[in-house]
Amino acid sequence: MSNNxxxxxxxxxxxxxxxxDQIRIPECRLMSDEExxxxxxxxxxxxxxxxxxxxxxxxxxxxxxxxxxxxDYGKFKYEQQKKAAEAKKKQAKVQLKEIQLRPNIEAxxxxxxxxKAYKFLENGDKVKFVMQFRxxxxxxxxxxxxxxxxxxxxxxxxxxxxxxSPIKMMGNRIITIVAPVKKK
Length: 184
Known about the structure:
Layout: E1 27-32, E2 36-41, H1 42-52, E3 55-60, E4 67-71, H2 73-90, E5 96-101, H3 107-122, E6 126-132, H4 141-158, E7 161-170, E8 173-180
């Protein structure tokens, strides 16, 4: 017994649309870039493709009857790759950046961290602000929360951003996420 078992019933994994001899339907709606042939038998479609020196490509297999197009398969694959690449370019990749603060942060340190946050928001990334309390700072959580809220208000105003998730107390941390406002 061989170790080549891949499961299933011996079907090969399909990659892309069916072409030429892989198309096993009695009739199809045949078309090309220039002409509509209407509903024809698959044998007639293969004859036309052979005469023109192109491939049969099943474009819409679920249609009734399925739609088959006459064109060069290499050209078809190239066009599909270009469309996929174009769609990928248009996708926005938003990352989540984190800025960590302390309740007794000095003004200059805060200014440096906020510059970084503004840069992240300008680039379209979300920013997670975390204020961590340690030791005796735990006794002054209320003051720390007020300072955190005032910092966030300044960030939202300065960088034209919005608080995406509400401010949460999680143990010894205060956390929120700020996202840039989308320009229309």
